[in-house]
Write a structure and sequence with these properties.
The chain has five helices and three strands; from the N terminus they run αααβαββα. By secondary structure, the protein is mainly alpha-helical. The protein has two domains: 60 residues, no CATH class; 98 residues, no CATH class. It has a three-stranded antiparallel beta sheet, covered by helices on one side.
């Protein structure tokens, strides 16, 4: 008996995509229903309007932001990283603002993406603003531009570190583009 492996892989990938969509849609529907329940004060009659609203909100959210995979372990590991860099970034900026000579030397630093387009890149761009003295200024298909307060810092390594953490949150492996691995 001949089995076409390409067709089998396509069927498995298609099935996995449907399962991911159903799981994501279910979670979103539950969250929207919870929001509806809270907003209406758990009034039972409100569900005559609430059910269609929850279904519409779920459908629209699936179109606007298609399902993506997340790694629970990656997310748990990201939380301490996020908290530490948030605190460190805030303290660093406050120190610079209160310093008598205001030690800043601003510059725009470019970082070439290794993450796939979509939510992982947006998540990273928002996370980069947590690094001490940095702010995401622009992102496009090939790069992320970051405004830094002190150009003497080692921002390339910090940006690669953030990208590695974000990659793990989304359960991704690094792109094979000739750059160093995570």
């Amino acid at each position: 008996m001949y089995v076409d492996n390409r067709k089998l892989r396509t069927n498995v990938a298609s099935r996995d995509s449907v399962i991911l969509g159903l799981r994501s849609g279910s979670v979103r529907a539950v969250l929207f229903a919870l929001i509806w329940w809270i907003l209406t004060g758990s009034v039972l009659n409100s569900w005559l309007i609430g059910v269609p609203v929850v279904m519409l909100a779920t459908s629209v959210s699936m179109v606007i932001q298609p399902p993506s995979t997340w790694s629970a372990i990656g997310l748990v590991r990201f939380i301490p990283f996020f908290l530490w860099h948030s605190l460190h970034g805030g303290v660093d900026v406050a120190r610079r603002a209160l310093h008598p000579r205001l030690p800043i030397s601003p510059q725009i630093v470019e970082h070439r993406w290794r993450l796939p387009p979509g939510l992982p890149r947006v998540f990273m761009a928002n996370t980069v603003s947590l690094l001490p003295g940095t702010l995401s200024a622009e992102l496009d298909e090939k790069r992320l531009c970051v405004h830094v307060l002190d150009k003497t810092g080692v921002f390339a390594a910090q940006l690669s570190n953030v990208e590695a953490h974000v990659s793990r949150v989304f359960g991704l492996s690094p792109a094979d583009d000739g750059r160093e691995a995570f």
